[in-house]
């Protein structure tokens, strides 16, 4: 295999593994903040116990996210040196901003969040939770801005440099805020953050549903599950809106990508493909279902306005159609599933009916895989859909600005054998890290909020009294608190 293919596979594997954790920490951060706010508002120990449990889960995922993210920065210099020279000025400013405004904010309050429960006051601890969550989102802001600039560059010019007798090109920022608010950054940022909130909500619902099926931690699940369900429903609906806005942005600035997403081979009124098997050679979608004119209607507001097709681009500037099409449609299909599941389940919260529907609880247990897959599929669609460019060409002030092809971003001195060996090495390390993550996460889930429950039970036995989410007093019962009349 070529150096380019191996380097692309290595970076794809590295970033896809890393991308398991940041969206989860951001989404869990919101749930954590909401639960602790309830504790601060009511001083009900049940909310405190729930917030403590998810803080432990949050800390585990935060650690994995940081450790796996460092590797990608090294790959910029080892495998993609030419790319790093081209975008160094842009990426340098964005990554510096992330470190100053996001990472230090997030990590600075993390110790208070994890270890400060009994060392600082409730308001200070809630403030630390809020800062850690905001810090995670600020990190996403600068990473998405840097990546979005590659998709829709703005606020820069190209300069030439003589490197050991060879002329190389470099992008330098001329307008920092134009770079930050490039045409795709806000649409993409909103979609990324919404996807993170959906993942966090489904993760909480999955574990809560598991406890319901095991007939454990009744009070805990009756606090966490409804909170996560409401969050999941709201952000699933928002994902539909933000996804539509982003598709219109892609149609305006990256028409080849949209054509690949929809398998739209020839310029003309666009049909919306629900699913199928795109055949680039035959220029058709095999075995699919299409809604005539619907793509034109979604993009332009009517069914007859032409949509740019792949035939408007040279063969060597067309993205891979099959993978772009399938990844995009997997993401959209899962997004619709999230809406149906969450919005459809909302009425079942009344009277606790949802907790008696064991089959639906099993659906929620495994539904957490959906947001993980959707986030990964969205990333694959966005990155594969911009090929063969790693930095898109753009037009500024009427002048065409050069981009950077992926094949031109490789390091000149790296050989295929070097990359293959590093893929094997990092693959083994990541398998080990994933195994440790699953093991520790499973142990924390099996343990549950039991430690806090025992502490609450001892306080309750001394007459301090614990009040449940329904307003009833919780009585100690063995190792767990039992809410009178509560049924899973």
Molecular structure report:
This protein has 488 residues and is mainly alpha-helical. The protein has a domain at 185-253 and 255-385. It contains 15 helices and twelve strands. It has helices at residues 3-18, 22-42, 45-78, 81-115, 122-151, 176-180, 185-213, 218-253, 255-262, 294-300, 321-345, 358-367, 369-384, 416-447, 450-461, and strands at 156-163, 166-173, 268-269, 272-279, 284-291, 306-307, 389-391, 394-396, 399-401, 404-405, 474-477, 480-483. Strands 1-2 form a two-stranded antiparallel sheet. The protein has a two-stranded antiparallel sheet with strand order 3-6.
SSE inventory with pairings:
Elements: H1 3-18, H2 22-42, H3 45-78, H4 81-115, H5 122-151, E1 156-163, E2 166-173, H6 176-180, H7 185-213, H8 218-253, H9 255-262, E3 268-269, E4 272-279, E5 284-291, H10 294-300, E6 306-307, H11 321-345, H12 358-367, H13 369-384, E7 389-391, E8 394-396, E9 399-401, E10 404-405, H14 416-447, H15 450-461, E11 474-477, E12 480-483
Antiparallel strand pairs: 1-2, 3-6, 4-5, 7-10, 8-9, 11-12
Helix pairs in contact: 1-3, 1-14, 2-3, 2-5, 2-7, 3-4, 3-8, 3-14, 4-5, 5-7, 7-8, 7-12, 7-13, 8-9, 8-11, 9-11, 11-13
Characteristic key phrases:
two-stranded antiparallel ribbon, disordered C terminus, 12 strands
Distance between the termini: 55 Å
Question: What spatial form do the alpha-carbon principal axes imply?
Answer: globular
Strand order of the largest sheet: 1-2
In total, how many beta strands? 12
Uncertain runs are 455-488
Helix percentage: 55-70%
User: What's the tally of helices?
Assistant: 15
